[in-house]
Write a structure and sequence with these properties.
Blueprint (H helix, E strand, L loop, with lengths): L1 E5 L5 E5 L11 E9 L2 H8 L15 E8 L11 E4 L9 H4 L25 E4 L2 H4 E3 L6 H5 L4 H11 L8 E5 L3 H10 L6 E5 L3 H10 L3 E3 L6 H8 L5 E6 L4 H10 E9 L11 H4 L5 E3 L8 H9 L9 E6 L3 H9 L1 H4 L3 E5 L1
Parallel strand pairs: 8-9, 8-11, 9-10, 11-12, 12-13, 14-15
Antiparallel strand pairs: 1-2, 3-4, 3-6, 3-15, 4-5, 5-7
EC number: 1.1.1.-
Cofactor: Zn(2+)
Family: Belongs to the zinc-containing alcohol dehydrogenase family.
């Protein structure tokens, strides 16, 4: 089969590789009907995740058709359409029993495109298929469901839920890329009084308005703290969500949040970030971090079916799977191309 293979920082190619096969009796082989590129893939190519070895097939998001299953798989069968979760779950360890699938001790967690070959390929082996894939309800299309593989659960769980957004809150979201936009979309479910999106790219700020931001701020032209102060009697945001993964944006969130407020870090940090405890220790600020667990996927599927979420709006560019190199070029220059998510289809 063909797949997108990582060959070290800055190096990737569309190569012939061996077809995946059933290794464990809990595995499924999925024919990839649609996949996409994540910001984490760009971090890998930058060398921010040095534990990923040369020769790895990248990608951890997919919608596909079950081709074969191991003897212990009971919830899916060949011919089923499924969404492949970015997180694999053994379903038995301490963390999986607590729905903390991202910390799975039984061989799961974030492994696709990381510790084992991923989804930017014609076929993928998915371990723990019973607990790592979800049947797609009739009537839902690939484009909408694909966004439930990673970005919507990530923005919702690590941003909105970890941030403890409540009705009436003022929410600052730093970074209006796909993860920031997913946080905006899912934050609206909790009826905050204001959602303020902050980004240096005007194209992304325009997208933030379309996804539900009440106010947009480009910090090159306006002071976000001053704007937020105007909505909060000078106190600051109740919740600040970091959706970039840079030290500067993390520090911005800690400055924007009010005393007693909450900072939810979602961004992937490839370098150290400074924690200014000399300023924060008296302010009762709660800071959360997290890798997505995908416990929310069934709930998000329900909201998708009822039309309360419309994640197909994330897709701005479409490519055939064998055009993946071109897709990476477009996605990596999102500030110029306006790319949010690129769809790679069979």
């Amino acid at each position: 089969m063909k797949a997108l293979v990582y060959h070290g920082p800055g190096q990737k190619s569309w190569d012939d590789v061996a077809d995946p096969r059933i290794v464990d009796d809990t595995d499924a082989i999925i024919g990839v009907d649609a996949t996409t590129i994540c910001g984490t893939d760009l971090h890998i190519l930058k060398g921010d995740l040095p534990d990923i070895t040369s020769g790895r097939v990248l990608g951890h998001e997919a919608v596909g058709t079950v081709e074969a299953v191991g003897s212990a798989v009971t919830t899916v069968r060949p011919g089923d359409r499924v969404v492949v979760s970015c997180i694999s779950a053994c379903g038995r360890c301490r963390y999986c029993r607590e729905a903390g699938y991202g910390q799975c001790l039984g061989g799961g967690g974030w492994i696709l495109g990381h510790k084992i070959d991923g989804t930017q390929a014609e076929f993928v082996r998915v371990p723990f298929a019973d607990t790592s894939t979800y049947l797609i309800p009739a009537g839902l299309d690939d484009e909408a469901v694909l966004m439930l593989s990673d970005i919507l659960p990530t923005g919702y769980e690590v941003g909105v839920v970890n941030g403890g957004i409540r009705a009436g809150d003022t929410v600052a979201i730093v970074g209006a890329g796909p993860i920031g936009l997913s946080a905006i979309m899912s934050a609206r479910l909790y009826s905050p009084s204001h959602i303020i999106a902050i980004d240096l790219a005007d194209t992304r700020l325009e997208a933030a308005k379309q996804f539900g931001a009440d106010v947009t701020v480009n910090p090159a032209r306006q002071d976000p703290a001053q704007i937020i102060a105007g909505f909060t009697d000078g106190l600051g945001a109740d919740v600040a969500i970091e959706a970039v993964g840079l030290s500067d944006t993390f520090e911005m969130c800690t400055r924007l949040v009010r005393p007693g407020g909450r900072v939810a870090n979602v961004g992937v940090h490839g370098k150290p970030a400074t924690l200014h405890l000399e300023d924060l220790w008296t302010r009762n600020v709660t800071i959360t971090t997290g890798l997505v667990d995908t416990w929310s996927t069934p709930t998000l599927l329900k909201l998708l079916r009822t039309g309360q979420l419309t994640p197909q709006r994330f897709i701005t560019h479409r490519f055939a799977l064998d055009q993946v190199i071109d897709a990476y070029e477009v996605f990596s220059r999102a500030g110029d191309t306006g790319a949010l998510k690129v769809l790679l289809h069979k």
